[in-house]
What we know:
mainly alpha; 5 helices; about 75% helix; about 0% strand
Amino acid sequence: MKKVFLAALLFVGITTFAQGKRGEQKEKLTAEQRVELQAKKMKLDLDLNDKQVAEVKKLLLEQAQKREAKKAEFQAKKDDGKKPTSDEIYAMKNKMLDEQIANKAEMKKILTPEQYKKWEENREEGKSKMKKRFAERKGNTQETPKLEEK
């Protein structure tokens, strides 16, 4: 009986330890710090010149500030217990897509055609990785079908 109890206690201890510090949050970076890191990564990946880096930083910072403002607005509505209507959801999604289109147009102006193509490929790769992680977290281990190349 002691062995069974000890084994059960050991099992619970190991599984609790294996889960680690899941509840603790990571230290959060400021928007400027995230933009700086993202711009440096893009400089390495896309071989950007200094002028391009400055323009990309400016664009990324604008996006980060808009995102933070929207996040705060959404959190305030959530705290008030207000749920968005279907029309509001449609308007938000429509606005988000318009902003993505504008972002792509700006990046196309800043980057050379080769850099833009690689940037697009990197974005698609990142999206697929995120979808895969999301599916794994949800318990769905099926691979998502990859879009065919044009």
